Amino acid sequence: MPVSDADLHGALGRHGDRVGRYLKGELPDNEFMPVRLSYGLYYQLDHTSHMQRIKLPAGLVDAKQMRVLADIGDDYGRGVLHVTTRQDIQIHWVDLADVMDMYERLQAVGITTRGACADSLRNVTAAIRAGTLPDEPFDVTPYAIAVHEYFLFHPLNLTQPRKFKIAFAGEPDYDSVQARINEIGYFPKIVDGKPGFSVWAAGGLGAQPHLAQKVRDFVPAENLLLITEAIVRLQHRSGERKNRKRARMKYLFQKLGAERFVAELDAIYATVEREHGDAVRAELAEIVADYHALQPRHPGAPLPATEDEAFAHWLRTNTFVQKQEGYYIATVQLPLGDLSGAQLRALADLSEEHGAGEARLANDQNIVLPWIPGDHLEAVYRRLCEIRLGDADAFLVSDVTACPGADYCNLAMSRSMGVATDIREHFMAMNGDVEKLGTFRIKISGCPNACGQHQIGDIGLTGQSTKGKDGKYTPHYSLLLGGRGGEDESRLGIRVGGRFAVVDVPRVVAALARHYQEHREAGEKFPEYVDRIGADALGDVARDAAPSSH
Prior knowledge:
The chain is of the alpha+beta class. The protein contains 16 helices and 20 strands. The protein has helices spanning 5-23, 29-38, 63-76, 99-107, 141-152, 224-238, 249-256, 258-290, 309-318, 341-354, 377-386, 416-428, 433-437, 505-519, 526-533, 535-544; strands spanning 41-43, 50-54, 60-62, 80-83, 89-94, 125-126, 166-168, 184-191, 194-201, 213-220, 319-321, 327-332, 338-340, 358-361, 367-373, 401-402, 442-445, 459-467, 473-481, 494-501. The protein starts with a helix and ends in a 6-residue tail after the last helix.
């Protein structure tokens, strides 16, 4: 059955009791930590204020929810909201005394933070253009929502050995959710006229990255929850629980080997089918039937001609044509994933005035507005410029993905957002060169935990702390080249020798981008370019551009 309001209110009431006990000093820190984490609340660097992560399944957020999120960002998070690489929203500087009021306000518009952190099934992500792609097999969105709802109160959800991530790909030409770096990655297929998915398991990044491996060529869509539960059960039963550093599913896959992993999965699947196969299929059918995508508020229309080069540039780089005639997706580029409450309210207005009253958060830390008629795009662009969100070149080299880094996180070794800003400003000053590079992505993580997904960027940068001759530790970056997503095309970036000083990083990235622009072959993507030129040779290019790093 779809998640009920009674379930949500009951769970939140019990959570509030525990928060109240902690604030009264009746619950020690070690007992409260899993409690706060289960609702997405982390300590920040100062260990007094908090970061709150807010789940948005499939990245979907409607106008009403956007306005509430904007208010919450203003009231509790110093007016700044941050879009993450899992289609979540984070706010910082939250006071523990305010969290229950915040949760109640979120729940009133259909948002829960349950399972946003801790050893749980994290936010289920989905392709940002799902439901609008001209060549998609089918819309994966209702299936992503079904997985979210089925497991929200499942007894295995908050009791996993470590975090557990699930993603639904959709775009044949661009895997916007990087499905193969998740515990489960689903790719939609049509086989013999039936919708379903290929199933990939045991992916994950971090210090020892591992791409998910195929465990099913095809599972009919009706059995989606059954195969998901089987994989979740396998990890719950056999995942490492003594050593948290080896508790992700990728280590279980490595321990068992592919053949044994699949054999044990088959056995568990048979058990799940026997226990409640028909009931779970019925539940899936109910949730999928209950999903109704929002409808556009204006008729579709062709894109009119324009002589405004700035607007034309934005159209080329920030819009996608939908399969629904006369409609477009407009991409709102968020510098480093940040936006203000006022900006989010303006986006809510734009979605209602020109679209379907809905937006979608992207894993690339942007926001997309679907269902915009062609003749409305200029009005959308003008308004975005007014609220300082009208930058072109979305998903290109100046649109850098970065984790919050040492500005907020106590694990980070570097200010990843600072170096991302430097790179962004460097490329934005290059006028038209950014667009010429095509879909060339930079991803930055402040530490090896890979929240910025650096291992699958065209260029990936990882923060590390390096001890100098004077005995002092300074932040540096390691460099990876040629990572990419996709079902069969996914691969991790190749590490280049050397450590690069923060001051050198923009020059290094620019030198590599220039080399690619000058020497690539027609139609050659950067990972293919790395293969042809060689990572060692490109490492020389990088080191030559880094005088402070020698």
